[in-house]
Amino acid sequence: MNDSACAVPRQGSPARLARGPGDYKSDVKPVWCPGCGDFGVVNALAKAMAKMALEPKDVAVVSGIGCSSRIPAYMSSYGFHGVHGRALAAGTGLKIARPDLTVIVTGGDGDGYSIGGNHFLHACRRNVDMTYIVMDNRVYGMTKGQASPTSEPDWDSKLSPDGTGLREFQPLVVALTSGANFIARGFTGDPNGLAELIEQAVRHPGFSFLEVLSPCVTFRPEQKEWKKMVRPDAFGPTSEVPRAVRRLLRDTGFDLGVLYAGERPPYAPRGPRALRPVAELEARFAL
Fold first, then answer.
1. CA pair distance 158, 146, nearest whole angstrom
2. What pLDDT is recorded for position 12?
3. CATH superfamily assigned to domain 33-284
4. Could you tell me how far CA 36 lies from the centroid of its own chain?
5. I need a labelling partner for 278 at 20 to 30 A (CA). Which of 136, 146, 218, 270 fits?
6. Tell me, what's the pLDDT at 231?
7. Would you say 71 and 61 are in contact if contact means Cβ atoms under 8 Å apart?
8. Nearest 5 degrees, angle CA 93-CA 10-CA 267?
9. CA–CA separation, 228 vs 214, rounded Å?
10. What is the DSSP letter of 67?
């Protein structure tokens, strides 16, 4: 990967100040419920940033709305807390304007796959060099337990008695068919493994998508059993789409690891254009 594109120090560059994971966390204390999986994402993100020796000023964490979207406040890097479902649009604009920054977009399954679903499709297609981390707990936690796009069709809740009857959204399938250049799944119960996946995602060129199974112990207490259901390293990375498709056909929803690491060049904006007189531009639009 072009090191300057992700702000990772080049070989032979001046040594940067050694930092530990704690240096990447702010003084703001998370307000998540005790036991929330999102704590694991903050810890893993801080570990990954420390391992890559990133300067906090060279990183921007962008989010939308939801429990997981609080993450920018908990990091010592730059942060942008945007509106519901629009985090990828903001992150894309930032990366195009400031290609020297490492841009990491964070969100949840409701924010990213429902109101933000269209942005998700086109972020994969554009292949801008940034990383998208989605914490999937299969529920809208902040708004008290509605079914989300990834909720099981028969999940019974007070708001959806007997379930929604709707087929679950398939994030990895959509990411692969839409053109994401790196696709992986992690689990908050394995913070070291998750930190490694985040590092790989950031370093890989193009649009990297990392789905993170992040249990909601408040509204989905049965998700505590996920730690017994995950299958570490069940995916083996491939650069071949047909092979990745075959692996997805056998996916249990709890298979972890890197599914796909593509070789498509990241989007690069065209060089600066010559300025033109206003009168010339107006003439082009004259009726």
1. 8
2. 37
3. Thiamin diphosphate (ThDP)-binding fold, Pyr/PP domains (3.40.50.970)
4. 18
5. 270
6. 95
7. yes
8. 30
9. 14
10. S
